[in-house]
From TrEMBL:
It comes from Dendrobium thyrsiflorum. Keywords: Membrane, Transmembrane, Transmembrane helix. This is Alpha-(1,6)-fucosyltransferase. The chain crosses the membrane at residues 28-47. It comes from the Eukaryota.
Length: 583
């Protein structure tokens, strides 16, 4: 007699549970995970495919295929779960014995749980796990994960000067291809190689020149050279040392806008900007020298030698008397927030392509075009390379949001998994060429940031329905668009996503505001790590989305737009529900 679906699922749960350790914490994790699968499975049986509800976890989209319309995700990964189901278990195909009779839904859940174990393994990097042994592992690689350790190692080379103070190896060959094979291909042409590096563009600017704000590549190159002089100990160098703004009520967006103003002052006064204490990195997730510093999330704004030199000068009276050192208190609020934009590159903001839509019309000119252009350049430089910590946060976010969907997709290419062994060794084209591709996410995808709450005192706020009206406008032109990455602090916005079953929503799983309260009070109600990590993940996901809808009156949306316009997204356009209050 063939077992019922419920009996089959119970057998799978028993098999997987036996393979876990006796850790109480791990048991709780496993029990919660498989209970979620059971609940989802029973709901899918009980209801029609088009009415499957939201289960509040990251894998609802995949379990219900196209029938469910929302997926939340958590940024918390338990690094010390005590589970034995990790590299040893996954690499041994006998651990999956009895699993080859699973249906597609259960296989996807099993593969997702195996990927989760890899992500949780704090002892190894993602890339090292898949590069072990002659036969590697029976676990296929998740297409949405990046090898964070490898990325940081590569980017460190791209962010430091070479021998004799030469510029980094920004060759015409991209990523690992340029770093590892370029010199091999031209072993006897060292001088020509150096000349090629001196004229190359920074690798963090994507797309053609027309796909970015005017002069983006040139400005990014000059900013890096300015902040990374050949010799930080030269007597004619001057420094501006500034902590990040920490006044109550200042959100991350305001802090970034303030630092962009300080960078402008540094450029105008020919000083090297050195950032200090960053309160949002003052938490347990930021370890070592990056604790309470910007470098916890992104690469430092200047070379370590310059930072050390500035710190030494701050201890000498002569440096203060001769204005070799200045700090934030040397400048007025007006100079920081609305001071003179650097004009060493002319006035390229006069040539911005009109790609912003407000009320169905392109915004061709406004009073703050110079500020818009400069903040975009400053932010692109400050966020040019992600730290390993930020990279891992994004791995967790993509895993939680898209993991089961990706598992179903991957299993279509290996239908006999886990019985069929998977060789995850990399050929040269995979290792050197395809490794430069961005991690997979479902595309096309639209990012929407809904700002409400206390923002009503600064700008005209509109209801979620207005944002979705603009989303429908985009889909009329691009009918294959059905995924939305939604960021908002308001729970009522999340609740309203149920009114749009034709869309798939993805969003972070954090406690949101119910009713009106200030952003400062809301952030204070969360722990500092959460209140920093989830907005930054939303920010980065928004900059990488195919389309974006926001509110120009929101500084956060203003900065997202700037990052997109220096990241090859100019021609994707920007649909806004209002105008900036200063324009």
């Amino acid at each position: 007699m063939e077992p019922t679906p419920q009996k089959s699922l119970e057998r799978v749960i028993s098999q997987r549970a036996v393979q876990m350790s006796a850790s109480l914490q791990c048991k709780a994790w496993v029990l919660g995970f498989f209970c979620g699968i059971c609940i989802a499975y029973l709901f899918l049986i009980a209801f029609t495919p088009y009415k499957a509800g939201e289960f509040g976890v990251g894998f609802t989209n995949s379990l219900a295929a196209d029938s469910t319309n929302s997926s939340s995700l958590s940024l918390e990964v338990d690094k010390n779960a005590g589970c034995d189901f990790s590299s040893k278990d996954i690499g041994n195909s006998t651990k999956f014995e009895g699993s080859n009779q699973l249906n597609d839904v259960k296989k996807a859940a099993l593969l997702y749980s195996a990927w989760t174990a890899v992500l949780d393994d704090s002892k190894d990097s993602y890339g090292e796990f898949f590069d072990r042994g002659p036969n590697r592992t029976s676990l296929p690689r998740p297409p949405y994960m990046e090898d964070c350790k490898m990325n940081v190692e590569i980017n460190k080379i791209l962010d430091m000067r070479g021998e004799n103070g030469s510029l980094p190896r920004w060759s015409l060959w991209k990523g690992k291809l340029g770093l590892e094979l370029f010199r091999v291909a031209f072993p006897s042409e060292e001088q020509k190689l150096q000349a090629a590096f001196q004229n190359a563009s920074p690798p963090w600017v994507l797309g053609s020149d027309e796909d970015n704000f005017p002069l983006t590549r040139l400005v990014q190159r000059h900013l890096w050279i300015h902040q990374h002089p050949q010799n930080c100990n030269k007597s004619n160098l001057r420094f501006l040392v500034a902590d990040w703004e920490r006044l109550p009520g200042f959100g991350i967006g305001a802090q970034l806008a303030g630092m962009a103003g300080l960078l402008a002052i540094a450029i105008n006064e020919n000083r090297i900007l050195v950032t200090g204490y960053y309160n949002r990195a003052d938490h347990g997730g930021c370890q070592g020298s990056s604790h309470a510093h910007w470098s916890c999330y992104f690469f430092p704004e200047t070379a370590q030698e310059c930072r050390d030199r500035a710190n030494d000068l701050m201890k000498t009276k002569e440096a203060w008397d001769d204005h070799i050192i200045t700090v934030k208190d040397n400048y007025t609020s007006k100079e920081i927030w609305s001071g003179r934009i650097p004009r060493v590159w002319g006035e390229p903001w006069n040539y911005l392509q009109p790609t912003t839509d407000v009320d169905g019309n392109l915004l061709r000119h406004h009073r703050k075009m110079d500020c818009r252009w400069w903040r975009a350049q400053a932010l692109r430089y400050l966020m040019r390379f992600q730290s390993e910590y930020t990279c891992r946060l994004l791995n967790v976010a993509r895993h939680s949001a898209f993991g089961l969907q990706a598992a179903e997709m991957v299993l279509r290419t290996i239908p006999d998994w886990p019985k069929e062994s998977v060789d995850t060794s990399l050929s040269d084209i995979e290792n050197f060429v395809w490794s430069n591709h961005k991690p997979w996410i479902p595309r096309p995808i639209l990012s929407i940031h809904v700002r409400m709450g206390d923002k009503a005192c600064e700008m005209k706020v509109v209801e979620f329905e207005n944002y979705m009206h603009l989303a429908e406008r985009i889909r009329k032109k691009f009918p294959n668009l059905n995924s939305i990455w939604l960021s908002t602090e308001m729970q009522e916005v999340i609740d309203k996503t149920r009114l749009y079953p034709q869309w798939k929503f993805y969003y972070t799983n954090v406690r949101r505001q119910i009713g009106n309260m200030s952003m400062a009070a809301y952030e204070a109600s969360l722990d500092r790590e959460t209140s920093t990590n989830y907005p930054l993940v939303n920010f980065i996901m928004a900059t990488d989305a195919d389309f974006f809808i926001g509110a120009l009156g929101s500084t956060w949306c203003f900065l997202i737009d700037g990052m997109r316009n220096t990241g090859g997204k100019v021609m994707a356009g920007y649909l806004s529900v209002n105008r900036d209050r200063f324009w």
